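Reopening closed ticket. The problem is back. First fold of the pair:
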Amino acid sequence: MADAFKQVDDLHLVRLTKRYGEHAAVDDLTLTIPAGSFFALLGPSGCGKTTTLRMVAGLEVPSEGMIRIGEQDITHLRPFKRPVNTVFQSYALFPHMDIFENVAFGLRRRGEKNVELRVNEMLDLVELGPMARRRPAQLSGGQQQRVAVARALINRPDVLLLDEPLGALDLKLRRQMQIELKRIQTEVGITFVHVTHDQEEAMTMADTIAVMNQGRIEQLGAPQDIYDTPHTAFAANFLGQSNMLPGEVVGRDGIVTVRAFGQVVRLPQEKVSTDADRIIVGVRPEKLHLHREGTEVPAGRNTLDGVVTDASFVGVSTQYLVATSWGQELIAFEQNMGSATRPAVGERVVVSWEPGHSFGLDGGDDLNAGIEEDLREVGHYTASDAQAGLAPTPAVGG
């Protein structure tokens, strides 16, 4: 199947800007998306990801900058003249046509030959061959989405743009389609650019993620790299959950030693993204382990004392909230591995984690950056608050 798609070049966005009055929806964005990759633009509503996609599609005109595929400047080409196709969340299928004719529509308009052969190839690719003569209303949401993908791919674009393509599907079907879209992309070998606000979706499907915030790229990299070593509080909070400890560096010798709320924690220098003396130490909830009082903690681990305030069974794991002596609640995920006795609410515990599982951020970052507004309980808590001796609200770390 990949042989049917010609070899393509990288997609280049060069100082791309889109303004609406005084507001820059996309702000001086420079980005290269490698040919044949599955690339995700990830961010909250209003961060500029959809506007970026629409400029590549030709549905928005850039205020400044250039869009190239290889050496071909497509910045001002009409949408239908670009080697780009788009799949929208709404699918936009023709309800009066069967699936075969929906997929064949573009070929027939251009008077192409071998329509039947090419449509059947596309329907086989998306595993809908036996349903060729059904109408869209007779298909599930996931099947309609695959028809939309087939209709876009049959034109053999250099780049396929996906604008929140799974947003209308329920959770189980969405997860199935994540795997299916990745399979299709791998098979055809062309560039997929996927816009989403769903962190799990981006991490499941993409080779590379660009985390966007206020029209700019906050961090760019492989999903695991961004997750394990975020460079900003926004990236740490938007791509998963994090526990954050503002503190002061008291030693650097390959290992960075930090004093936070009277406690000492350590982390590797390569996991710290700042040279500042005030930093934020972050650790993901699944990296934390709870030890009941009187049990031994392995040597070399960071430790904090606390009291379990909540335990929620969520299937594969149990989510714990642990209150520290300074009022912060840490989140810990423990896998449910069997019949081992779990700490109870109200029980004192020691929270531990490997130093290498920490990451260090600039101490001036807003600890709530990247957290959806409705998940914040009371205001903001910053490293400056910590320096002033103010206790965080229970929402910090979530």
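Second fold of the pair, where the issue appears:
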Amino acid sequence: MADIFREIDEEVRRDKAAELWKKYGWLFTGLAVLAVLAVAGWQFWLYREQQASQVVGGRLEAALKASRDGNGSEAETILGGLVASAPTGYRQIARFRLAAETAKRDATVGATAFDLIAADGALPQLYRDLARLRAGMLRVDLVPYAELRQGLEPLATAQGVWRHSAREFLGIAALKANLFEDAGRWFDAIVTDPQSPAVLRQRTELYLALVRGGPVETKN
């Protein structure tokens, strides 16, 4: 008896399934087709993105090669094109590289280019601060210490990601200006920071030796 009821139940389920397929089969088929098309479209988009990325990456490498070969004008032309048309990630790399390339022929213009990056509110603060640091590094030999300090000191705080480089260049600028107390303060901040890189500590010891020596007097 149980087998009879089981067979009847299975027959009813088959009939219901057939009825559902007859009524909604077009919908299931359409959904399956849409799923296949969506996967195919996604794969095609990934392929196109990969192809575009390879093209842009090749252009960036060409710019870097031109720079290494001393062909700055060609490097700037390629990088300028990438800044204008490359996807966001490559565009930001190109902006930094273009500013650095420009600085090779004109430090003032290069620093201004980094200023523009630092002022871009669409960028993460980490990259804006890096651009501010690069601008300050270029200005060590261009502006008075007080002006340089205004730009770099906010990066030299205990929590600053770029504090090590900011402190080093602030110390160098102070040393060049014969402001030995300020120079010593920045160099001491490097030495006492447990996270300062070992190579930087070694350089700082040399700086501190200059600070302890004080101004060099010359006789007329």
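Update: turned out to be a display glitch only; the data is intact. The chain has a mean pLDDT of 82. Residues 6 and 124 are 66 Å apart (CA to CA). Please close again.
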